[in-house]
Amino acid sequence: MSENEELSLAERAYRAIRDSLVMLDIRPGEPINEDRLAQDLGVGRTPVREALKRLQYERLIATYPRRGTFATEVNITDLAHISEVRLRLEPMAAAQAARRATDQDRGALTELLQELEKVRSGRYQADELMRLDLQVHRAIYAATHNPYLEDTLVRHDNLATRIWCLFLDRLPGGVIGHVEEHRPLLRAVIDGRPDQADELASRHVEGFEKAVRAAI
């Protein structure tokens, strides 16, 4: 197997395990079984081990001597710390995306906007809405064309989404309203309006924190 193929498998394993942790398909506190993950993903243990190293750095898993590796607990006290970072960086990212998005970026964002138009149709389950939420955020981060900003925000949005998923059935008004807030934000980015994108992103993060706190 070539080095590029191995890296590709490691990346595939990383993304699959990461999203299972973010969406709580792997529950907080659940033990991580390398062999089972490798079997489920159809890869060897080496790509899984590489993926787990990254996920430990991203605070999605934790390893304890003589106990093993576990999905990290979702700690509501982390919400304030995560929001503090996101309130600074999400508006910056939205504004930069509005300035820097390529035609290809705008095309991808337009497709997501079209998906958001269907949210009220009832075709989406709650977990599907959350996956759509992740897609929107990641597409905006990618459109900044700043890999350091993108990497930081993906990691913090992953942690925020775990908190959101934990309280999903207790959120006032459910998740539809939160996800629909992305429509004007996406439109501002697509149309190249950085000031409006900045303001809408700031409101979105503030609204997220308030909604979670109301559900506690």
Class by alpha and beta content: mainly alpha
- The H-and-E topology, N to C, reads as HHHEEHHHHHHH
Number of helices: 10
Strand order of the largest sheet: 1-2
Contiguous uncertain segments of 5+ residues: 1-6
Rg, Cα atoms, Å: 18 Å
The major pleated sheet works out as: 2 strands, antiparallel
Rounded to the nearest angstrom, the distance between the terminal CA atoms is: 49 Å
Strand percentage: under 5%
Q: Rough shape?
A: globular
Q: Helical residue percent?
A: 55-70%
Count all strands and give the number: 2
Mean pLDDT: 91
Textual characterization of the structure:
- The protein has 216 residues and is mostly helical.
- It has ten helices and two strands; from the N terminus they run αααββααααααα.
- It has helices at residues 3-22, 34-41, 45-57, 78-100, 103-116, 126-142, 147-166, 176-180, 182-190, 194-215; strands at 61-64, 68-71.
- A two-stranded antiparallel sheet has the order 1-2.
- The protein is globular, with a radius of gyration of 18 Å.
- It starts with a helix and ends with a helix.
Give the helix/strand layout.
Layout: H1 3-22, H2 34-41, H3 45-57, E1 61-64, E2 68-71, H4 78-100, H5 103-116, H6 126-142, H7 147-166, H8 176-180, H9 182-190, H10 194-215
Antiparallel strand pairs: 1-2
Helix pairs in contact: 1-3, 2-3, 4-7, 4-9, 4-10, 5-6, 5-9, 6-7, 9-10
